[in-house]
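Sample intake sheet
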Amino acid sequence: MRDLVEIGMGRTARRSYELDDIDIVPSRRTRSSKEVSTAWQLDAYRFDIPILAHPTDALVSPEFAIELGKRGGLGVINGEGLWGRHADVAAKLAQVAELADSDVDADAPIRLLQELHAAPLQPNLLAAAVAQVRDAGVTTAVRVSPQNARTLTPLLLEAGIDLLVVHGTIISAEHVAHGDGEPLNLKTFISELDVPVVAGGVIDHRTALHLMRTGAAGVIVGYGSTQGATTTSDVLGIGVPMATAIADAAAARRDYLDETGGRYVHVIADGDIDSSGDLAKAIACGADAAMLGAPLAVAEEAPGGGWYWPSAAAHPSLPRGALLPVSFGERPSLDEVLTGPSTDPFGALNLVGGLRRSMAKSGYSDLKEFQKVGLNVRG
């Protein structure tokens, strides 16, 4: 039964929970962390670790996507970002980082990002970025917005992507276009494609179930929120705490599994995951994998120069994100971020190692089993 509270006469609201509000409850059995598997499979593609990189230029360059892919994760290139607009993206990102480092005008980096994203998309540049990742032999994934999915997808398919990610701040099964534009019906759109589609973000059971019914292979839950970086709640007033959002999407997955007689749709958590403990709790709430932004952006391989921002920060009229400093000195390698060794006592490094130990201490050997672990709400 839903926990409803009265917020005023005749108006109720549902009580919901952040990842920080809950804890994992171990079972009676423990096991060695070497006996734990963090592997998962999305359609035909198998991954050794349940980590995707958030599709923002601050994090995913073709080179970063390759490095993460070699380590068993999935880097998602922003198909509407700078890699398809400028030939010298590294230099452009260095300008953004320099402005952010100067701290003279807090809005200057956002204005520069808006200016850089105003440049037209160049199909040859985007195709070259996709080809670079594909030729490295790792799974190739690219993000498009619902507004531009119909236009960009043929180009991406020709370039040879393996996975398409239809991703926006808020997404629905049918995007209504402005004016006389034809709405994007995701069910029709996905049925016509030969590659699996991951869609999101969503934060409630109904929308998650609707997206699953479109034929999506995975549903992204959340808006990539990271403290200091994403301001969806501030700008739009919209938000559901991540523990509740993930659990609701997992319930939608169970309903859809019963409805279809066995079709499983993966739930990917995207937001408020800053440590290995958060990652473990996201899986425990029902996620199959997590899409990480700032926690990966600390790595020296990330192109943001010690800064992180979501792709929505560059929106031309309503930016929903600020630049977040993620490093104040020597940056760790991607290996240290993912698998250690770590000198950080708060779980910011060795994310996968922390997840493995949490699973082992709770007595579970794989991710799907770990979704059944007991949970506690803090008083």
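Comment: The chain has one domain: 4-377. The mean pLDDT is 91.
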